[in-house]
Design brief:
The chain has 9 helices and 10 strands. The protein is an alpha/beta fold. This is Response regulator.
C-alpha cells in the first residue's frame, strides 16, 4: 500500500523545489509524489486531480514547476498550459503524459511548454526529476538576472554621471539623461553614434576601441568635443561586455583646480 501524503508547509523551504502535479489517475499521482519527495533534493509535491483545481491553486500559491498529464476530463494538458501561460509566462511547465504523439508535442511546444516527457518505466520518474531540477535551476537564474537588470536600470537612469552602453563596434545603443546633458545633444541624436563623433581629429578610434575590447576595463581622461565646439576634459571608466555584447562607459568632467578651490572655500565657510 502506498504511503499517505505527508503534510507540507509550502513556501517554508527557501530553496526547496515546490511542484504542482496534475493528473486524474490516483496511482500516477501517488507514484510521482512519492518518488520526487524521496529522491528529489528538498522537493515537495502538491497533487491535484484536474486542471481546474490547479488553476484555483495557482491563484493562491506559487510553485517552482508544474507537471501535468495531457489527457484529462474537462480540460486537457495543452488547454491547461494555455491558461497557465496567460498569467505565468515563465514558470516551468512539463507535460508528462502516457498519451503522447508528435502532434501533441508540437502543439505543446507552440504554446510554450518547457519540456515534454512520456510516461513509462520507473526510470522515467528519475528522468522527470532531472528535467524538473534543470528547468527550475534555469527559471531561478533568469529571475535573478531579471532582478539584477532592474537594479542596473535604476542606477543607469538616475545616475548623475553620464552612462552609455555601446554595442560591439562602439555605437551607442542606450544612454542616460546625464549623458545627453554632457554631450549637449538629445537622446535620439546620441544613439547610433560613437566616440569618434565627439573626439579631436587626431583620435584613433579603431585602435583605441580594439585595445579596449581586449582589456578587462580601462580608466583615464578623454577630451570630449561637443557639437557647439566646447571641449570638456572627462574622466572615464569603461568595462567591456558588462553583459555579453554591451560595453559600459561612465563619464564625468574632470574637476579643475578652480573648482577644487571653490569647493574648499564653500566647505570652510560652512
Amino acid at each position: 500500500m502506498l504511503d499517505e501524503p505527508p503534510s507540507h508547509s509550502f513556501g517554508a523551504k527557501e530553496r526547496g523545489v515546490h511542484v504542482l502535479h496534475v493528473d486524474d489517475e490516483a496511482m500516477v499521482r501517488d507514484l510521482v509524489r512519492i518518488y520526487l519527495e524521496r529522491h528529489g533534493a528538498d522537493c515537495a509535491v502538491r497533487s491535484v486531480t484536474s486542471a481546474a483545481e490547479a488553476l484555483e491553486l495557482l491563484e493562491q500559491e506559487q510553485f517552482d514547476c508544474i507537471v501535468s498529464d495531457y489527457r484529462m476530463p474537462d480540460m486537457d494538458g495543452i488547454e491547461f498550459l494555455e491558461r497557465v501561460r496567460e498569467t505565468n509566462p515563465e514558470v516551468p511547465f512539463i507535460l508528462f503524459t502516457g498519451q503522447g504523439s508528435e502532434e501533441v508535442a508540437s502543439r505543446a511546444i507552440e504554446r510554450g511548454v518547457t519540456d515534454y516527457l512520456q510516461k513509462g518505466e520507473a526510470e522515467r520518474l528519475e528522468l522527470l526529476w532531472n528535467r524538473i531540477d534543470h528547468a527550475v535551476e534555469h527559471y531561478r537564474r533568469r529571475r535573478e538576472l531579471s532582478g539584477e537588470a532592474r537594479k542596473f536600470r535604476a542606477v543607469f537612469d538616475r545616475s548623475s554621471d553620464a552612462m552609455l552602453l555601446a554595442d560591439e563596434v562602439g555605437r551607442y545603443v542606450d544612454v542616460n539623461d546625464a549623458a545627453c546633458d554632457l554631450f549637449g545633444v538629445p537622446r535620439e541624436e546620441l544613439l547610433g553614434r560613437t566616440a569618434i563623433d565627439f573626439a579631436p581629429p587626431e583620435f584613433d578610434f579603431e585602435t583605441a576601441w580594439r585595445q579596449f575590447r581586449s582589456s578587462d576595463g580601462e580608466e583615464g581622461e578623454f577630451p570630449l568635443v561637443r557639437p557647439d565646439g566646447e571641449t570638456i576634459m572627462l574622466e572615464y571608466s569603461a568595462v567591456p561586455d558588462v553583459v555579453p555584447g554591451l560595453n559600459l562607459s561612465v563619464l564625468r568632467p574632470v574637476e579643475s583646480e578652480d573648482d577644487s578651490d571653490e569647493d574648499a572655500e564653500d566647505a570652510g565657510a560652512a
